[in-house]
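Request: Give me one sample?
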Amino acid sequence: MALTIRLARGGAKKRPFYRIVVADKRMPRDGRFIEKLGTYNPMLAKDDENRVVMNAERVDYWLGEGAQPSDRVLRFLVAAGKAERSIPQQTKKAEQSEKTKMRIEEKAEKVREAEEAAKAAAEEAAAEAAAAEEAPAEAAEA
């Protein structure tokens, strides 16, 4: 049996209230569940201690039994320090194409060349300024 720790909605229209429950994955969202582990009240302020209330011992037990938390419940567990949230691996579709990579490389090369040219021009200007300062000083000495 595939177990999941998820939210079951309760409360009135536009006044949501959720129970954190362990249920069979095949059961409907608000349907039969195995055990109630806590509550989540999104109407309370984010810093309110009663916004998310969980029985940590039972959550640990069910995680040990192989229950998979839903995304929202996983966020609660991460906030409570009971689990770690891994960042999903990028798909190939999200990867840049070879042509885009080449364009980025070309832009970076142009920027490097422009920086080198500016650096060379600044050094040349500094050398000319130094030469101009020395020339009047030599003429005054003679």
Remarks:
- The chain has a mean pLDDT of 88.
- Strands lie at 3-12, 15-24, 35-40, 52-54, 68-69.
- The chain has two domains: 3-80, 93-141.
- The chain is about 45% helix and 20% strand.
